Amino acid sequence: MKNTGLALLLLFFLSPSVLSQEVFWIGKDGGRLESEILLKQYRDGIWERLDFPPADSFELNFHPALAVSPSGELWAVWAAPDTGVETKIFFSRRRSGIWTEPRRLTASDDFWEMTPVIAFGPDGTLLAAWSGARGGVSVIYCSRWEEGGFGPAEPVSSPVSSPALNPALAVAAGGRALLAWQGWKEKYYRVFASYLDGGKWSPEKTISRVGEIDQIRPSVMSLTGVGWDCSWAEKGKLRSAVFDIRGEKEPAAVGASSEKVLAVAGEPPSAGWLVERIHDGTTRTRRTGIIFEQVGDSSGPREETAVSDREYIGYGDSITMIAPPDTYSYIPHLRSMLPSAYGGSYTIHDRGYGGAGTDALLTGGVVIGGVYVPGINAVLDSLPGASRILIMAGTNNRWGDYSLVKHELGAMIDRARERGREPVLATIIPSVLFLDWARVLNNDYIIPLAGEKECILANPYQAFLSYGNWPRDLMLPSPPDNNLHPNDAGAGVIADAWFLALSNARPAGELEWYLPAGGTKDFDTYILVSNPNREEAVVEIEYIGPNGSFDSFTHSLAPSSRYTANIKNLPLVGNNREAVGTIVRSTNGVGVIAERAMYWPKGAGPEGWTGGHNTIGLSTTGVSWFLAEGATHIFDQFVHVLNPDDGSVDVEVMFFNQSSDFWKETSLLGSRSVWTVRVSDVEGADNQDQLSAWVRSSRPVAVDRTMYWPKGDKWKDGHASIGVTEGVKEWYLPEGATHIFDQYVLVANPSSKTAEVVFFFRDQHGNPWYHPTDIDPQHRRTVKVNNVVGSVEQVSTRITSNVPVVAERTMYWQPNTQPSWTGGHGTVGVPAPAPSWQFPEGATNLFDKYVLVSNPSASQAKVWFTFMGAGGEIGSHYAVVEPGRRYTVKVNNVVGPVEQVSTRISSSVPLVAERAMYWPPGNWRAGHSSIGYAK
Length: 935
Prior knowledge:
This protein is mostly beta strands. Helices cover 12% and strands 46% of the residues. The two termini are 68 Å apart.
C-alpha cells in the first residue's frame, strides 16, 4: 500500500499526461502590498493573473487558500482584521465569473483566527479549517458548510499541542476527511492528524516518531481507492505518509530535487496553495513554496571552527537584510560602530529574509519572494564560528496571534543556546499602519520574553519613538513603501539600539576592590558597590584597621543593581573607628565596581553634612604609587596605605614640591592593615602650597589621598583621589568650569627628565585654548584654568607630555577666594578614552548629580546613559557629542528624586567621563567628584 500511494503521489507531481483540467494558485508572493492577494490560473503553458476583488475590502489580508468545487466553482478563504487588530476568517465564492462579497466564516468575536484552509469532497461536501487563538492557546477548528453558511466551529486539536497552525484538509467520498496540521511537541513542531468519519473527529495523533526535527506545513490529498496522502516539510525534504481507514503507514522521503516535484512548469515560487481540478471533477491541493531537497541539514558532524566573540549573525526579515535601495539594513552601520568603539574588526553575517515571519525563521523550509528560508537551526549550523545571533522578527506576523510570535521567538532563543550561541533579542520597529500592533507586541510580549529568558534585549522600537518625527525622518516614504521599512537613517537608529544592547552586555567590573581611606569616628562612611552585569554577584566586604582585619560580611547583588553599606552599622566596626580600610571581593566570579563616600559631621545626613568627598576604588595593587595633588599650607592632607595581604610590608612615602624639595616618612605595616599619614606631621612637609607624593613599598599595596580645608578641626569641605601606579604621556579631565569655580589642573613629573607639557582646554562650543609649560624632574606644577580661559561654563582638559606625568584637577566655589571656599572637589585624570564607563555612586533625592563626558576623538559620539537604582534600571538618556566637545547630563532631570542612582555609559567611540555631585540641591554647600570605571 505504501508503494502504491507514493507512486500515485509521484505520478500526480511528475506526469504531464495527467495535467488537470484546471490549475489555480493563490498566495501573497512576498509582496509589500498588504492588501494584495494574488490569484493565478495556468493556461497554455503560462500563468495568468486573475482579479480577486474581495481583497479590496480590507487594508490587510493574510494567508489565502483556495478550493474548487466539483462543478468548477472557486472558493477562497483568508484572514483579515475585522475589528481592532485581531484577524478573522473570511470567505468568498466565484459565481458566473463574479466573486461574492466577503463573509465571516464564523461569528466568534473572542478568537484570533488565522491560517485557514478549505476543501471539497467529490460529493460536494465542503469543509473549512483554521487555527483559532485565545488566551495564548491556539487550537485547530473545523466547520462544515450547511444551508447557505458554515456551521459551528468544532475544535479538533488538543490545547496541549498549542500552538497549532497551518492546517491541511482533504475530503473523500461519504464525507470522510483527513485534517493535518503542525502542532507543538517536545520543543519542536510535529505534524498531527485527525480523521473525520461518521461525523466525529478522531483523537489527534502524530504521524511519525522523530527526534529534534521540525515537521511543518503539511498538505493532504485524497488518493482514489487508497485513502489519503499527507506530506510535509522535514529538514529540507518532503516526507510522506499514506493513510487508509485502517491507519498509518511509515513515512517515506522523496529524494527528488525541487525542480522535479513541481506540478506545472513555472509554478509560482512563493508560499501559497496550488489547486488542481481533475477531469472527473475531483480536486487535489498542496502547498507551494517549499523546497524538498536537502538544504542546511544540521544532522551531520559540525565543522570544527573556533567561536569568535567578534562574529555575529543578524537574523530576521527584510528589516535585517542588506538589499538597498529597496531596503536598508542596520548591519553595515553596526559593523562600523563596534570597531570604532572597541577596536579590531567584527563580522556580522546578513541572514535577513524578506517577508519571513517567526514561523519561517524558526523552522525554515519555505520559499518567500523567491528566496529560500532555511530556518534558525540550519543558519546556526552553517556559521559555527559566530558567538551571537541577533534576532529581530515579528513584523510579518501581523496575521497571527501575539502569543504565537512570543512562542516562536522563545523557541529561537532556546535553539541558539542549545547550539552554544548567545541570543540577543530585539523589539520590532514601529510602522504607521501597524503602530498598535507593534506597541502591544513589543511591550506585552517581546520585552517580557527577554526578561523570562534572561536574554539581552535591544529596543529599536523605543529608539524610534524617542527620535521625534520617526515616520518622516526614519522610514521610507509612502508611497511606495507605506512607511513599513526604515531608510538609511532609520537603519542607523536600529544599529544604535543593537550597539547599546551589546555594549551593556559586555562583562564589566573586577573581582577585587581596595579602598584605603575610611573611618567612623568623625565621618559617615559609605561603601557603594554596583553590579552592571546580567548575572547575580555575590560579594564579601572586609573591613581592615591599623591592627588588622576586624569584620566582614557577604551580600548578593541582583543584575544591574547597586548596594550601599554604611559601615558604622556593622557591630564590629561601630561608630568610633579613626581608620577603616575596605576590601570588596566578588566570590562567584561576576565582576563588580566599588566606590567610597565620606561625609561630616557624622550623623548630620545630607541636609546637615558640611562636607564630603568620594572616589572610585582601586582594582589593583602596586609597589609604586603617585599622587599629583597635595598642599599643607591651608589644607589638612592625608595619605592612606592599605596592605591587603598576609605578611608585613615596608612602606616609604616621599613628598616633593615645585622646588624639588623632598620629605620622607616610613612605616612597617602588619598583615591586612591600614596606615594613615597626616602630611603636616611629616618633618619639613608642613606649610607647603604644592606637594606631590610618591609611595614605594616592598610588597604590593593600595594608596589614596584625602584633603580638607580650612586646616584645623572645623573642615568645610574636602576632596579625595586614588593614586596611580605609573605616569602616562596623555591625560584627560572632562569636568571643569570657571564661571563660578576656581579650577586648577595639577601635574607632577616623577621622572628624571624635564617634561614638556601642553594643556589643551576646550569649552562646550569647541573653542580651544593652549597652555605650554616645562616641568623639571620630580617637580610639581599647578595651572589655574581661570587665568587661561577666562569665565567659561563648561571646560574640559587634555594634557600631553613628552615623558610620563601624573595629572589631577580640583575645583572650588563660593566665594572663589582661598581659603574661604565653601565647597570643592577633585579627582585624578583619565589616562585613556574608553567606550564604556560605570559609576556606582549617585543620588538625586538630596543631591544635584551630573554626569560629564568629553569626546576627544575626530568622530561623532553617540552616547547612551543608563541609570540604575537599587533594584535595576530606572531611566536612560541619549546624546550625540560632536568631536572635541563636552556634554553634561543633570541626572535629576532624567530619573527624578532617587536615593540610589548608579550610572552606565556606552559610546559609539571612546570618550572620557566623570561624575559630580553637590548638596543641598540648588544651593551647594559641598560636593564631590570622581572618575569612573572604564572598560
